[in-house]
Every structure is written in C-alpha cells, then in structure tokens.
Design a protein that fits this description.
By secondary structure, the protein is of the alpha+beta class. Among the domains are: 41-156, Immunoglobulin-like, CATH 2.60.40; 163-272, Immunoglobulin-like (Sandwich). The chain is built from four helices and 18 strands. The chain has helices at 2-21, 27-35, 297-309, 318-344; strands at residues 41-44, 47-48, 57-65, 72-79, 84-88, 92-94, 101-109, 114-123, 133-141, 151-156, 163-169, 176-185, 194-199, 204-208, 221-226, 235-244, 249-256, 267-272. Strands 2-10-9-4-7-6 form a six-stranded mixed beta sheet, with no helix packed on it. The chain has a four-stranded antiparallel beta sheet with strand order 1-3-8-5, with no helix packed on it. Strands 11-12-16-14 form a four-stranded antiparallel beta sheet, with no helix packed on it. Strand 6 (92-94) and strand 7 form a beta hairpin. The radius of gyration is 42 Å and the shape is flat. The termini are far apart. The model is unreliable at 1-35 and 276-316 (pLDDT under 50). InterPro entries: LPXTG_anchor. Pfam families: Gram_pos_anchor (PF00746). This is LPXTG-motif cell wall-anchored protein.
Length: 345
C-alpha cells in the first residue's frame, strides 16, 4: 500500500514539473528588448526668438546623453518647421534628400555622460510674425546609425506688446540737432529688442548712430536697431544726431514694425528749427500730465500763504457767539430766582 502511494506521488511530481518550468522560456525575449534600447538620446530645450523683430532669432540647446556603460560617439538629428532655419551650428550638416533636417554632433561621450550643443534658430518668414508657435524635434543617433525616437521642442515667435515712444529735439546749431529718444516697455513681459526708424525729408540726414543695413529705409530715412533686452517697465534712452540744412524741417520718428504694438503712441512728428523756443522739437502727441508731476514742499509753501490771504472773511465772528452765550446764561439765572420767589409767596 505504501509503495503504491509513493509511486503515485512520483508520477504526480513528474506531471507537475513541466508546468513550473514553462514560464522560463520567455527569458530570451526580455534580453532582446534590453539589447534594442537606444545607445544615444537627445532632448531640445524651448526656443524664444527675439532681437531683430523683422528677423528674430534665438538659442537652441540640445542635450545629448550616452546612457550606456561604455564610451560612444553621440550624434543627433535635428528637424525644424517651416519659416525656421538653422543659422549657427558648427558641427551640423544637412541631410541629403530630407528638407529642413540636419545631422549634428559626433563627439565621444563616456558611459553615462552628456554634452550640451548650443545652436541658433532664426525666423525665415517673409513678413514679421508675432504670437506664433511651432515645433521642432531631435533624436539621438549612435555611430552605427541607430536612431532614437524623436522628441519635440517648442519655438516661440515674439508676442505683440506695447511700447511708449517719447522724443524731443533741441535747436539746430551749426547745422546739427540732437533728438533725445525715450522708449518705455509698458507691456507685461521683457522684449528682446526693437526697431526705431527716422523718416527724413530732403535736407535732413541721420549722422549717428549708424543706420542698419537692412535696406528697409533706403531713400526715406534710417532704421536703428536696439537689440538689447528691455524689461517690462524699463526705459531705453538714447540720442540721435541729425544733420540739417535748408531751414525748418519736419521729421517722423516711430517704432517698427507697426503691427507689433498694441498701443497708439509709437510714432511722433518733430519740428526742427534754429529758434529753440517753445515748440521747437516738441512732439505732436504730448506726454501725459498729472501723476508724473510732484510739486516740491517749497513750492507748496509759497503758494499756500497768498491763497489763504486772499480768501474773504464771511459769517459771524467768535466774539459775537460769546456775547450771545452770556446773555442766555443771565436770562436763565433770572428765571430761576423769579421761580423761587413765586414759590415762597
């Protein structure tokens, strides 16, 4: 009986062993997926286009990583959208047969190491573009040509904003006048530069600063690029020197492109003359008055005394009120004495 029971246990164990060993067959598939993992990865950072509003550009940083344990050369493939181009990338070359695509990098990366590539992306739109977003993409690639999946990064064109222009011109002396320009960023964010233009009639020429070579103002005036970042609430002040011949002249100064700005005080007309009196160089749109003017304490003291001396005296004086009060008091006492005498009688 015991032998039969032991034989049954052995047979059951033999039947159960293949069931336990079955899942071990899936192990080679897991090792295959590990071997297929990419050897080089790449990620691109967000791009903000700025500086020249007609053709804005901005930096693009691409981080290339080697997640492996051994050293390997790290390449990356870059794709850009329409109206965007790569203007600076020393280790990038175009991919033949694939428009707007570049192969970059190639430096050796240690196991677990990374390298940041700094490129420059510029807008190629024929006309200024504002408030637009587009997407580019990058993918890591190793020396054998194995390419990782593409990851997207965003490209931001400049947004519309508001800038306030103020300008005054001094008198023309010896054929030269100086225009003091003040541009205030009244928007809610920093801007990466703007364009200032001077439309000049015959007999007026911009002597300084140097005009931009964009060709947009040839024959009509001068364009001056201000490429520095202007923070929100900050004011950019600079002088423009004009050479003037032939008597009184009128020039127009403005911020461009005009469709970038949401406010209206972006253009002024200045009159240039040698008199230097009131109105010489005054803007046609005067600056707002009121909150910007703060009277000094001395001025307030000098005006307050004459104003008080000129006020007429009206109404009843204080001595009159005193006499009336004394009379009422005497009347009250007399009535009290009379009441007591009547009561006694």
């Amino acid at each position: 009986m015991n032998r039969l029971f032991a034989s049954g246990l052995v047979a059951a164990a033999l039947l159960f062993v293949p069931t336990l060993a079955g899942p071990a067959v899936a192990a080679p598939a897991a090792s295959t997926s590990v071997e297929a993992a990419p050897t080089i990865t790449a990620r691109g950072d967000i791009v903000f286009l700025g500086r020249d509003p007609w053709s804005p550009s901005g930096p693009l940083e691409v981080t290339v990583r080697n997640p492996g344990s051994t050293a390997a050369k790290g390449f990356f493939v870059l794709r850009l959208p329409a109206n965007a181009d790569l203007t600076l990338g020393g280790d990038c070359r175009t991919v033949q047969g694939t428009p707007r695509t570049w192969l970059c990098g190639g430096a050796e990366l240690p196991g677990g190491g990374e390298r940041v590539h700094r490129l420059t992306v510029a807008s190629t739109a024929a006309e200024p573009v504002f408030g637009v977003q587009a997407w580019g993409s990058v993918a890591g690639r190793d020396a054998a040509g194995v390419t990782d999946e593409f990851s997207d990064f965003r490209i931001n064109w400049p947004d519309r904003t508001s800038l306030r222009l103020r300008a005054t011109a001094g008198p023309v002396v010896n054929g030269t006048t100086t225009v003091r320009v003040r541009v205030t960023n009244t928007g809610t964010f920093d801007i990466g530069g703007y364009s200032f233009t001077v439309t000049t009639p015959t007999g007026v020429r911009v002597a300084a600063p140097a005009c931009a070579d964009s060709g947009r103002m040839v024959g009509v005036g001068c364009e001056i690029l201000r490429p520095n970042v202007l923070a929100d609430g900050a004011t950019d002040s600079f002088d423009v020197r004009l050479a003037v011949t032939g008597g009184t002249k009128t020039v127009k100064v403005s911020l461009s492109p005009a469709d970038r700005y949401t406010n209206k005080d972006t253009a002024l007309t200045l009159r240039l003359s040698g008199s230097g009196g009131s109105g010489a160089g005054d803007a046609t749109t005067p600056p707002p008055a009121g909150p910007t003017a703060t009277p000094s304490p001395t001025a307030a003291a000098t005006t307050s005394t004459p104003e008080a001396a000129q006020l007429p005296r009206t109404g009843v004086s204080g001595s009159t009120y005193g006499l009336i009060g004394a009379a009422l008091l005497a009347l009250g006492i007399g009535l009290l004495v009379l009441r007591r005498r009547l009561f006694r009688g």
